[in-house]
Amino acid sequence: MKFDLHVHSCYSSDCDSKIDDILKHSEMNGLDGVAICDHNTIDGSIKAIERAEELGSEVIVIPSIEVSSLGGHILILGIYENIKPKLTVDETISKARELGGTIIIPHPFKRSSHGLGYIHGIDIDAIEVINSRCLNNFANKKAQTESGKLNIPGVGGSDAHIPEMIGRAYTEINTKDKDVDSILNSIKDGKVQAGGSLTPSSYVLRQIYANMKKAIVNEK
């Protein structure tokens, strides 16, 4: 099955993507599912689960969150409550484990996007080795190298902040089971293959403009 494991919605402060549009573009782009990982809130993914059921969508939504730890961003998949930001990396991971979460380090070597900058010595389940929002492949290639060295599964995610970007990077998950627990267990077991490509600069500029527009509106 094909998943985009890093998507943002309008529940993130820097994104305007509506839940229904995310589900629509996921289907259009041939995805079986998505992880909606809004900044410091689970609300977007919970709403997406509800809307998928209401709309009769076959897109599988994994409840997820992107937590801003003191060291950088951390994706937590498979949880149904928030983890507060500004904890240490170890505190964030410990809380995620308490909640039964699957832990993925996104864009670890993209420091401009709050990447941790390291992988070694932390308790994680996977590394995002393809992030389509990187302007060049340096950070992705370094993540791929570290994934191989440490024998940690590598996954892909678009980090989409506009619907058209969804599925630009993705993860092929080797399972036929459609329940979330089985999907997450397959990720932990390394039954994954990351794929995708970088986002065109025109899309990046569109996103920057959308972020600025939303920030101005929020200040009013």
TrEMBL record:
Which species is the source of this protein?
Methanosalsum natronophilum
Q: What Gene Ontology terms describe what this protein does at the molecular function level?
A: 5'-3' DNA exonuclease activity; 5'-3' RNA exonuclease activity
Q: Which parts of the sequence belong to the Polymerase/histidinol phosphatase N-terminal domain?
A: 3-71
Q: Which Pfam families match?
A: PHP, PHP_C
Query: Which InterPro entries is this protein grouped with?
Result: PHP_dom, PHP_domain, Pol/His_phosphatase_N, Pol/histidinol_Pase-like
Q: What is this protein called?
A: PHP domain-containing protein
